[in-house]
Write a structure and sequence with these properties.
It holds the Pfam family TFIID-18kDa. The protein is mostly helical and 48 residues long. The protein has one domain. The model has no long low-confidence stretch (mean pLDDT 93). Helices cover 83% and strands 0% of the residues.
């Protein structure tokens, strides 16, 4: 099947540098999702 976030974290948990990088990327991804959602809401409201 599909590789999940948990699978990646499990594979890199012993390598502190990689684990830290994966965590950073995941938190950045969450921030981008929130920003995109807010931007889409603003765009939707201004078009109405």
């Amino acid at each position: 099947g599909k590789i999940s976030v948990e699978d990646v974290l499990h594979c890199v948990k012993r390598d502190e540098r990689k684990y830290s990088r994966v965590r950073d990327l995941l938190s950045m991804n969450e921030e981008l999702k929130k920003a995109r959602k807010a931007f889409d809401e603003i765009k939707y409201v201004s078009n109405a």
